[in-house]
Amino acid sequence: MGSGLPVVSTVHSGIPELVEDGVSGYLVPERDVGALADRIVHLIDRPEDWPAMGRAERTRVKSEYSDERLNARLAELYEALVSS
Question: Is the N or the C terminus of the chain less surrounded, counting Cβ atoms within 10 Å?
Fold first, then answer.
């Protein structure tokens, strides 16, 4: 996602927290080869969509998952544990 290219992935574990279906890439059900192939072909056929999707995911990664943001969240968790 940080490379700025659209993502095609399955709905597994924490992936939907990162990939917004139809915005920064596409999510398909696990083990659904047909759906996976469909979304890949869809992207291949629409290269004009790549820049906007890439920007959307790169923006999300930078704003929500930067080192600074993750460290601040961790510090908040530690402070909450210590004060309780």
Answer: C
Cα angle 51, 48, 2 (rounded to 5 degrees) comes to: 20
Q: Which two tokens stand for residue 15?
A: 């992936």
Length of the chain equals 84
- Coil, strand or helix at 48: helix
pTM for this predicted structure? 0.77
To which H or E segment does residue 82 belong?
helix 67-83
pLDDT digits (tens, 9 = 90+) for 28-51: 999 999 999 999 999 999 999 999
Q: Provide the sign of the torsion angle of the four alpha carbons 53, 58, 2, 22, taken in this order.
A: negative
- Within 10 angstroms of residue 67's Cβ, the number of other Cβ atoms is 7
What is the distance between the alpha carbons of residues 11 and 71, in angstroms, rounded to a whole number? 27
